[in-house]
Design brief:
The chain is 18% helix and 32% strand. With 114 residues, the protein is an alpha+beta fold.
């Protein structure tokens, strides 16, 4: 019998942040903001709300679990993992990507632990 697949958490806690396990793709920055603000994640008998785009600094702090390479929208721009290999190594640093707000990128949402 094959081994069962490890479950992917819907929300993962990392320090003071909770990271939504899903990704929304091909949205501009404003659509990404609206998606995160409207996100409701069933959690036991309640729903988690209060999600937002992460700041680039938060993405860099969450690098071990953020899952790249992106690019992803951040509150303060866009972030991508860049290094000398293709595809980038999982531990490649996250850096700012200079794009306009209408560019279609992926988005991941976070919320501050309450």
């Amino acid at each position: 019998m094959p081994a069962s697949v490890a479950p992917i958490p819907i929300v993962r806690s990392e320090g003071a942040l909770e990271l939504f396990g899903g990704v929304v793709e091909a949205v501009n920055q404003e659509e990404a903001r609206r998606f995160c603000a409207a996100l409701r994640v069933p959690y036991g008998s309640e729903a988690l709300t209060g999600f937002r785009l992460p700041a680039l600094l938060e993405i860099q702090q969450l690098a071990d679990v953020f899952r790249g390479p992106g690019p992803f929208w951040a509150e303060d721009g866009a972030a991508v993992q860049i290094d000398d290999t293709t595809p980038p190594a999982p531990d490649a640093p996250w850096r700012e990507l200079m794009v306009g707000g209408e560019t279609a990128l992926a988005a991941r949402c976070v919320r501050t632990v309450q």
